Amino acid sequence: MGKGDNRTKRGKIFQGSYGKSRLKKKNQKKKEK
């Protein structure tokens, strides 16, 4: 339920991973913060 949780959008952004809660966009530059 925080930055370290990769089941949440915030956790995925922190880890740089993608999934159901954070879908990957096609036209996206290197890092998104």
Walkthrough of the structure:
There is one protein chain. The chain is an all-alpha fold. 21% of the residues lie in helices and 0% in strands. It has one helix and no strands. It has one helix at residues 9-15. The protein is globular and about 25 Å long. The two termini are 18 Å apart. The model has no long low-confidence stretch (mean pLDDT 73).
List keywords for this structure.
single chain, about 35 residues, mainly alpha, 1 helix
Quick summary:
This protein is mainly alpha-helical and 33 residues long. The protein is built from one helix and no strands. The longest helix is centred in the middle third of the chain and has 7 residues, at 9-15.
Please provide the count of β strands.
0
Shape: globular
Taken in chain order, the helices and strands follow as H
Give the low-pLDDT segments: none
User: What structural class do the secondary elements suggest?
Assistant: mainly alpha
First-last Cα distance: 18 Å
Assembly type: single chain
Rounded to the nearest angstrom, the radius of gyration is 9 Å
Secondary-structure blueprint of this entry?
Elements lengths: L8 H7 L18
